[in-house]
Amino acid sequence: MKLKVNGKSRSFAGAPFKRLIEVLREDFGLTGTKEGCGEGECGACTVLVDGEPVNSCLIPVCSVEGRRIETVESLGNPGKLSPLQEAFMERGGAQCGICTPGMLMTATAWIKGGGSAAPGAIRECLAGNLCRCTGYQHIVDSVARAVKGKGGGKRR
Amino acid sequence: MRGAPETMAVLRPKSGAEAVKLYGQQTKAVPLAGGTDFMVLWNLGLLNGRTILDLSGVRDWRKIAAARTGVLVGSLATHAEIGRHPTVRAEFPLLVSACATIGAAQIQNRGTLGGNIANASPAGDTFPSLLVYEAVVRTVSPRGKRKLPISEVFAGVKRTTLGPGELIEAVELPFLDKRPSRRLFRKVGTRLAQAISKTVAAGILRLGKGGVVEDFRFALGSMAPTAVRLTEAESAVVGFKLTPAVVDEACRRLERSVSPIDDIRSTREYRLEVSRNILRSFLEGNQ
Fold first, then answer.
1. What interface predicted TM-score (ipTM) does this complex get?
2. CA distances to A9, A55, B5, B203, B251 from A129, in Å
3. Which of B41, B46, B56, B106 is most worth mutating to test chain A (most A CB atoms within 10 A of its CB)?
4. Among residues A116, B150, B275, B282, which one has the fewest Cβ atoms lying within 10 Å of its Cβ?
5. Closest Cα of chain A to B189: distance in Å?
6. How far is A46 from chain B (nearest CA, A)?
7. pLDDT category of residue A150 using cuts at 50, 70 and 90
8. Same domain assignment for residues B139 and B126
9. 3-state secondary structure of A52
10. CATH code of residue B231
11. Single pTM value for the model
């Protein structure tokens, strides 16, 4: 099976019903994506498929063959963070960090899609990503900052 | 126990015709569309050993096409795609509102209209809107094609009237003849996002000359084993002016069409009272 992950072509020869999150973490070593609830409530496992946020814990890998998959590893690295990641650092958008990769991916799609910096709109866009540490305000501030900076999710 | 992928057999059709052929041969297979409900139970290890009919390769069933008489929504169109479609937005706003309340973005980007109908949850949030718009479900099986009014698709909790090997290929939304004067979509859950409905309502109403109601359609979800039209309440209203007595009678009749239960999300009494209040404010025009 051929998969497109973070701009690279990858092949996978395991069980076709293996979940996307496990293929990413175990087969491709992309452990940035976290599993939280395993039932599509918490959004920790969010990745982008063809640019749209989805829960990778609810997706058998066979159903995304040939689709464009992006994980948090596509955004930046410790040497060169994406503007959104920088905004999270500056505004305290991350505490324990488990929800952060999912938050970053949902917000990346929001910014790329021309989403606004209005706090209410950002809260709605992030409704499928739960955080138990921050109380959300710092996350909303971080995303708003990135939107205003026209940063986008990608490294510049 | 967890989901064990090596126990699963996967059929991967590349077209609608191939899907029908494979499903006809293996009617015990589980058709998988967005998987947003199936995968939750699978993750708990409750569905190991099944054969899956993976519909992700059936591109022809993803399309949404506007025609002269209505919109044809492919069964595999996602809630997000339906909510973005310009003709659906212009003509079927109750369906757009419903699609926007299903889970959050991640679920709306995967869940499909056909998958939700086939799954037949009593709490399916699009169903009251589909009932109000009198949607028609197009199916296909080795025995041929069928068109079923949405009201005839649901047979009970998580049960449909679809036969062995029968798949949903599209949902027809016929345009309304005339614009409604009022419309309503209202979902009541524990919180605004990511909640399963305690009750969910959709309605349209059209007033004619002298304030006489010419058309009134109202449907509820999470209030019975299937989503239901309130036919009794509707007949108390159509052909009459919206006097306090008529509104009272419609609210009294609501109970005749539903059978809400006490469960983890709500109580029978709460569901009834909130639903009656939603119906009353809609009829009184102060939503």
1. 0.94
2. 28, 10, 26, 31, 38
3. B106
4. A116
5. 14
6. 7
7. low
8. yes
9. strand
10. 3.30.390.50
11. 0.95
